[in-house]
């Protein structure tokens, strides 16, 4: 991977301004290293201020055959938001962080427009000020951006009730590989004219276009929520509790599971354990559209429940135990943790957790599992994996997930890390159709090459 030539860099500076083209390696480090620790060599970082500048940058890169990686908050874990270090092509990282405005909320239309660089927290704040909510929530809300969330089709903790990022998109503005601007921007719930291109761009990880703005659906806030932290014997018991609560007549806003090793790590870092001294093998965190009295009545007599604490929402102190996992895992592992984001059929989550824990014991590594029990998405973290053994561990886990009918990527995307494993999740005809779409929209393969689909 190399920098564009000096003449092209000069033309990029003319478009976005000198301060927003970064070629110094030290200054570019934050843009060339992702959350998984993957880093790259030399690339120019370009930070356009609006869609017009973005289109001009993309067109210039396309005309000169320069590969381009769109980047939002750079919080990805699969190498999709940074270029590869071993690629000889000239490369530009197009950062959308300056496209961070959030428009006034359309209360009647239940929607808001936001730039690709706007953080999830900023969108949530705008929605809350208008008495509404945005349907996707992540622990990384202060750093994850709208464009990146669209690119990976993020799910998060509210997917059980509102769906993934694709379900929140009413309209989109994006720059195609040729530099043309695609704009669909109508606050309509029903608009069935032709192919759903916004849905196609969701999950495309910057391989088809650069998303610059998104018109986001908003939802009504529940009048009251209650959060219950529930201690259970193991993941099988957690599944039984969830099944019984689901039949109780109250809307589930979120259902999260945490196994004992992860809880212990977070508590060791300073968080409060609601059940000190408990021998529970897992904790279940539920948020329901109900009040505390209704939740307490619902939990009375539930089979498999060892103990429970109930608090009025948002109950940030209880949520802190779940949201502290990522940081606690990073502190604890002596090597870079192997982090996998997988899903299995809803009833198979306990079996997956049991299998991973037994596998980790055989490999003499530590397993920390947590995630979205309500939609079958578990975050598998394997700690202290010996250097050089990461590939075997990843293969073993993903092979098992595929064998039981699961998905090797639930919400973090495919990126570069999983691109060569695409056949585990998609058949030959499926992959061929995706390649045809890629070729049609990006015939010269300049948009994030090597991401999602491996290069031949």
Automatic annotation (TrEMBL):
Residues 38-221 form the FAD-binding PCMH-type domain. GO terms for biological process: respiratory electron transport chain. Keywords: FAD, Flavoprotein, Oxidoreductase. Its cofactor is FAD. PROSITE patterns: FAD_PCMH (PS51387). The keyword rRNA processing does not apply. It is an enzyme of class 1 (oxidoreductase). GO terms for molecular function: FAD binding; oxidoreductase activity. Its EC number is 1.-.-.-. PANTHER family: D-2-HYDROXYGLUTARATE DEHYDROGENASE, MITOCHONDRIAL. Belongs to the FAD-binding oxidoreductase/transferase type 4 family. This is FAD-linked oxidoreductase.
């Amino acid at each position: 991977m190399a920098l564009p030539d000096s003449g092209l860099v000069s033309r990029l500076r003319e478009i976005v301004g000198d301060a927003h083209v970064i070629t110094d390696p030290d200054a570019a480090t934050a843009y060339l290293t992702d959350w998984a620790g993957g880093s790259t060599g030399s690339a120019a970082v370009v930070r356009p201020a609006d869609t017009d500048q973005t289109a001009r940058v993309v067109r210039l890169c396309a005309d000169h055959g320069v590969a381009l990686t769109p980047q939002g908050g750079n919080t990805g874990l699969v190498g999709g938001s940074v270029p590869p270090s071993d690629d000889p092509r000239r490369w530009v990282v197009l950062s959308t962080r300056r496209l961070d405005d959030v428009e006034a909320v359309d209360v009647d239309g239940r929607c808001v427009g936001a730039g690709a660089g706007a953080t999830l927290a900023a969108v949530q704040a705008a929605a809350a000020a208008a008495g509404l909510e945005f349907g996707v929530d992540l622990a990384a809300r202060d750093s994850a951006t709208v464009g990146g969330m669209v690119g990976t089709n993020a799910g998060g903790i509210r997917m059980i009730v509102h769906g993934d990022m694709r379900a929140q998109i009413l309209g989109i503005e994006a720059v195609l590989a040729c530099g043309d601007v695609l704009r669909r921007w109508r606050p309509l719930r029903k608009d069935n004219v032709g192919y759903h291109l916004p849905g196609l761009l969701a999950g495309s990880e910057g391989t088809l276009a650069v998303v610059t703005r998104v018109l986001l659906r908003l939802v009504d806030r529940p009048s009251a929520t209650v959060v219950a932290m529930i201690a259970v014997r193991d993941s099988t018991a957690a599944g039984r509790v969830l099944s019984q609560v689901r039949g109780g007549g109250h809307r589930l806003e979120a259902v999260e599971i945490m196994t004992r090793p992860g809880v212990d790590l977070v508590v060791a870092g300073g968080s409060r354990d609601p059940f000190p001294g408990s021998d529970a093998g897992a904790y279940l965190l539920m948020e329901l559209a109900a009040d505390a009295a209704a939740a307490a009545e619902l939990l009375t007599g539930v089979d498999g429940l060892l103990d429970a604490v109930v608090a009025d929402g948002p109950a940030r102190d209880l949520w802190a135990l779940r949201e502290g996992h990522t940081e606690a895992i990073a502190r604890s592992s002596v090597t870079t943790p192997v982090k996998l984001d997988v899903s299995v059929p809803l009833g198979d989550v306990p079996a997956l957790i049991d299998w991973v824990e037994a596998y980790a014991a055989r490999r003499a590594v530590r397993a920390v599992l947590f995630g979205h029990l309500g939609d079958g998405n578990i975050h598998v973290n394997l700690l202290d994996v010996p250097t050089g053994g990461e590939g075997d561990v990843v293969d073993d886990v993903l092979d098992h997930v595929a064998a039981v009918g699961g998905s090797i990527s639930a919400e973090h995307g495919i990126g570069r890390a999983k691109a060569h494993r695409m056949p585990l999740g998609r058949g030959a005809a499926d992959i061929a159709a995706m390649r045809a779409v890629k070729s049609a929209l990006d015939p010269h393969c300049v948009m994030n090459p090597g991401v999602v689909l491996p290069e031949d």
